[in-house]
Every structure is written in structure tokens, then in C-alpha cells.
Write a structure and sequence with these properties.
104 residues, alpha/beta, Transcription Regulator spoIIAA, 4-stranded mixed sheet, globular
């Protein structure tokens, strides 16, 4: 019996909806940002306005672009969003890019 080593890549992420808002789980990188954003467009924004990012396993600057696009959508729909559970590394990246106000 041989064992094989497999590089574990974070699963492509996505949003799920519940009465507590939207929950993101998985990865949100350049490779999957367009798909995640497109899929979120088929969902009504959370009634309570909460998007919980605690389940984010891996992210790059594309995650910031998705969050900003969701905020833009909320504004166009006359809604407010609250982003919670943003990983510290992504929060730091937002500061570097000067968009921290847009992702909080």
C-alpha cells in the first residue's frame, strides 16, 4: 500500500444564506472571484444586512473587490451591509489599498 501526498488547495468559496445573514466559506481569490460574485448576484441581499466572512480560508485582493461590489449593489438597492469576521490579513490589505472604510 502506497500513500500519496496531495497538495490541499482551499475549496472554492461561496455564500450561503440563513436567517443570520450570509456566511462565506472557502477561498476567494482571483481564480474564483468572478464566479463567487456572479453566484451572489442570484441571491437577495441578506435581510439583516450581515455578511459574515469568518469562514474564509484563503483570500487575496480579489476578495476586497467582491466585498466592494456587494456594497455597491447594496447602495443601489437602498440597503446597508455590515461585513463581520474579516480575516486580519484581508483587513490589513484593505488598509494598504486605502479601502478599509468600504469593507467594514
Amino acid at each position: 500500500m502506497t500513500s500519496h501526498s496531495v497538495d490541499q488547495q482551499p475549496a472554492i468559496g461561496g455564500f450561503t444564506a440563513s436567517e443570520r445573514g450570509w456566511l462565506f466559506a472557502g477561498a476567494l481569490t482571483l481564480d474564483d472571484a468572478a464566479g463567487v460574485l456572479a453566484a451572489s448576484g442570484t441571491m437577495p441581499l441578506p435581510a439583516n444586512g450581515v455578511i459574515d466572512m469568518r469562514g474564509m480560508m484563503h483570500a487575496d485582493s480579489s476578495a476586497l473587490a467582491v466585498i466592494i461590489a456587494l456594497r455597491r449593489r447594496a447602495t443601489s438597492e437602498g440597503r446597508k451591509l455590515s461585513i463581520v469576521g474579516l480575516p486580519p490579513s484581508l483587513r490589513s490589505l484593505a488598509v494598504v489599498y486605502g479601502v478599509e472604510d468600504l469593507v467594514e
